[in-house]
Specification:
The chain is mainly alpha-helical. Helices cover 70% and strands 1% of the residues. A hairpin with a 5-residue loop joins strand 1 and strand 2 (440-442). It is flat and about 75 Å long. Residues 430-447 have low confidence and may be disordered.
Length: 451
């Protein structure tokens, strides 16, 4: 790699390195090669990696559970410029640790940053709480907050982070009360968190009273406030009233966005009133708002559970014609429906769009696709899709490879099997797994080397 970089003659700017690492991150590229590339460039005279490059490299290493290597990068950052290690950097590293380590180990890792960060202040503690809220549980975040609150001074952001994820209105009210006691004045985000938890708890009367209190304090509801109310009305079975909220928003000078429309559409989909849901999507377009993948997924979910392949395929074609690319969830609804009804051509058409336009998770979708192709005896198609994945530097799962291997052996296609085996060897003998977000992770043990 070092010699190739010397010979290529390309000027390696920070912008180029940022884009290369970003591509590695989103294509789930090889973390070891990425680190080698990162290190070679970093050793060039007069070159300094950007904060974005450092954070992206740490994310790649954390996702692949290479915590020891991540620590080495952090130490290097401290030597070069400690200001590069920000609360955002901390959160990137802690989030990956929290996925596979205990709360205690996550907090211990957090304390190690005291030696690295220039100012170990409230923003650093907020990064920890945000990590725990996202990767662990609100109970864990609450317990850690109470154990650490004497070591720092909580601010508005601290309470907004801790208020944002509660499902229990009692817990949210306690934190809101503590916030007031400490002299921290709630803002729009604080009130929105409280309204949201009331709506999710189906306590609409409390939600409306909170909105009235906001107005009394001259804190006016925004799109998020109204979207929470729309969701709450849907939970109590009042989709028509939720639709009326869209008109109420406009009267108060607050115009609904795509998320607000999606919330109303979701209510009608849950009520199995797809005609009203489609009308709302048309209304969105009429107002100049583009439906996004989430909008379409609301319908795909309904069609999947009702086994309505025709409507799902028609909606997919409409989605592609509108220029809205499906996400992984869209692809999974569709490919599972194709598998259920043994529609090989449709599945291959979806796969072709994925390869051509670069959307969706190849790894997750390919497992279902290979199952379908193998079930239907379509070995040529399975081989082609397999090779397309490898060309995209995406490793097919071992389960899919073994199934194709067995069928090729039975069909005496030894040369094709040898070719596929060589392609799989490119990825080495790594133990790959899929985490809860559908991301591919190279598992490294023990994870405690950083923790």
């Amino acid at each position: 790699m070092k010699e190739s970089l010397k010979m290529c003659g390309i000027f390696l700017s920070n912008d180029l390195i940022d884009r290369v690492l970003k591509r590695v991150r989103f294509s789930h590229g090889n973390p070891t090669q990425a680190l080698e590339f990162f290190s070679i460039i970093g050793k060039r005279r007069g070159f300094y990696h950007s904060p974005f490059s450092y954070d992206t490299m740490l994310y790649i290493l954390g996702r692949s559970r290479k915590f020891g290597k991540a620590w080495e990068v952090l130490v290097e950052m401290r030597k070069k410029d400690r200001s590069l290690i920000t609360p955002r950097t901390m959160q990137i590293v802690l989030a990956r640790i929290a996925k596979v380590c205990s709360v205690r180990q996550t907090v211990e890792s957090f304390r190690k940053f005291r030696k690295l960060v220039v100012e170990f202040d409230t923003e650093c503690f907020n990064a920890l709480f945000r990590t725990l809220c996202q990767e662990k549980s609100m109970t864990d975040a609450r317990n850690v907050y109470h154990s650490l609150k004497h070591e720092f001074r909580p601010n508005l952001q601290t309470f907004n982070i801790l208020l944002s994820g509660w499902k229990s209105s009692d817990e949210a009210e306690r934190f809101f009360g503590e916030m007031i006691e400490l002299g921290v004045k709630p803002d729009l985000v604080s009130y929105n968190c409280l309204v949201d938890v009331y709506c999710k708890s189906r306590e609409m009367e409390k939600a409306y009273k909170t909105v009235d209190k906001m107005r009394d304090e001259e804190i006016y509801p925004d799109v998020f406030t109204y979207t929470s109310i729309i969701g709450g009305l849907g939970l109590i079975g009042q989709p028509d009233k939720a639709r009326d909220v869209l008109k109420e928003m406009k009267e108060h000078g607050c115009y609904p966005d795509t998320a607000a429309f999606n919330a109303v559409i979701r209510n009608f989909c849950i009520a199995k009133r797809l005609g009203d849901a489609y009308n709302l999507m048309d209304e969105m377009v009429g107002r100049g708002l583009d439906p996004n993948a989430t909008t379409y997924n609301l319908f795909f979910r309904c069609f999947y559970w009702s086994n309505d392949l025709g409507s799902a395929w028609s909606l997919y074609r409409r989605m592609m014609d509108s220029g809205c690319l499906p996400n992984t969830q869209s692809c999974m609804f569709l490919v599972r429906l194709f598998h259920r009804q043994e529609k090989v051509e449709m599945a291959l058409s979806l796969w072709g769009d994925m390869v051509g336009k670069g959307f969706g998770s190849y790894i997750l979708v390919s497992d279902v696709l290979f199952d379908l192709l193998c079930d239907m005896g379509k070995l040529d198609e399975a081989e082609k899709c397999f090779l397309q994945m490898v060309e995209k530097r995406q490793k097919p799962s071992n389960v899919a490879f073994k199934r194709i291997k067995v069928l090729m052996e039975l069909a005496n296609r030894h040369e094709a099997l040898r070719n596929l085996t060589e392609k799989m060897a490119i990825f080495g003998h790594l133990n790959y797994g899929v985490d809860v977000n559908g991301e591919v992770a190279e598992m490294e043990s023990p994870v405690q080397q950083f923790c």
